[in-house]
Design goal:
The protein is mainly alpha-helical. It is built from 7 helices and no strands.
């Protein structure tokens, strides 16, 4: 009998454990990156042997992945700067990093997030996942945002139908 009670107690306590990371889509069927980014057709190579490695060279199957992504999102691939910041964004980057960069930003944000979630929930949610309840007012409806941008005249990529 004690063993059964101990098993029930341990199972109950395991349900209260911290779950760690969360799926941020929360079951929403938002746009899928594979339906936005272009994919190249599959090509059967002439020879089945592996080619020799070419470190630093372009990928044979996707020679310009960043340019393709910029084009798919309605941008100009010629404006992209390899490994740097475009000239038009340099003022933004300078203002954002005016006070320097924090090396422990992930730990700081994790602590601030935990503090916010503990303030944004009540005792009634004890033992439940409080993440989505705490951030419910900040959730972005992807399709409403898509329609807002379209109405404002912004060029936006198409999205899968909202069922």
């Amino acid at each position: 009998m004690r063993l059964v009670a101990l098993a029930i107690l341990l199972t109950g306590l395991a349900g209260c454990a911290d779950r760690g990371l969360h799926r941020l889509d929360h079951g929403l069927n938002g746009p899928d990156e594979f339906s936005v980014l272009p994919t190249q057709p599959l090509v059967i190579p002439e020879v089945a042997t592996l080619p020799p490695p070419t470190p630093g060279a372009a990928n044979r199957t996707d020679p310009r992945p960043l340019s393709d992504a910029v084009i798919a999102l309605g941008g100009n691939p010629a404006a992209a700067v390899a490994g740097g910041v475009p000239a038009g964004d340099s003022a933004l980057v300078a203002a954002a990093s005016a006070e320097g960069r924090s090396g422990d930003i992930r730990q700081v944000l994790a602590a601030e997030d935990a503090a916010y979630r503990s303030r944004a929930t009540t005792f009634l949610s004890f033992g439940q996942d409080r993440y989505f309840r705490a951030y419910r007012g900040m959730a972005l409806d992807a399709y409403a945002e898509l329609e807002r941008l379209r109405a404002a005249g912004a060029a936006v990529p198409s999205a899968p139908p909202n069922d």
